[in-house]
Amino acid sequence: MAFTPGVAYLTIRCGPGEEVRMLSGTSQQPAAFADHIRYSLPSHPVGWPTVIPRARGAVPGAASVSPHANQATLSRVIGALGEALSAPAVNHDWRESVSMQLHALRVAFDEHIALTEGPDGLYAELVTVAPRLARTVQRLAGEHSTLAAHMAVLQSFLDSRELNIDQLRECGAELVRELKLHRQHGADLIYEAYATDLGGET
Fold this sequence. Notes:
There is one protein chain. This protein has a 3-stranded antiparallel β-sheet, covered by helices on one side. It has 202 residues and is mostly helical. It has 5 helices and 3 strands. A hairpin with a 5-residue loop joins strand 1 (7-13) and strand 2.
């Protein structure tokens, strides 16, 4: 696959031998989200599906949601998406069920981003408590773009006229796995900041 010099890409894994690359901006001006997704999959031509991921702006009502409540919601919707993906795909209700759970996940994940990023977010608080963790916090925040892109890829598969259920399940299972890892990384970071650097660093 050819790449444009000076352009950054996000790589999304959707199963063995399957590769999805999302244009994420230029090296001079990185962008968190892409306007298009380019994909190369077995039995699929290379093309440009018109997928525009949700903009990372203010989330209505996010300020009134506590991080603890958001984490509980994320855990629930991640599990619900996994269950929807593994359910028997016997009729059109399966696609609708997966799509509904994915939408709920994207809403909860937008809230998660709003609560963690920015000058008043959880990540800024963690850096204040433990400045030595700044690079780890930056890496964790960077996972948001990849995860949001992965959700957009999964939605593009759901919206496709030629639904490949096995491919969609592979992509969804990988997303669920990465989301669980992201939540674990976040929990580890909070523990390290407050248990190791209780009271802040001097």
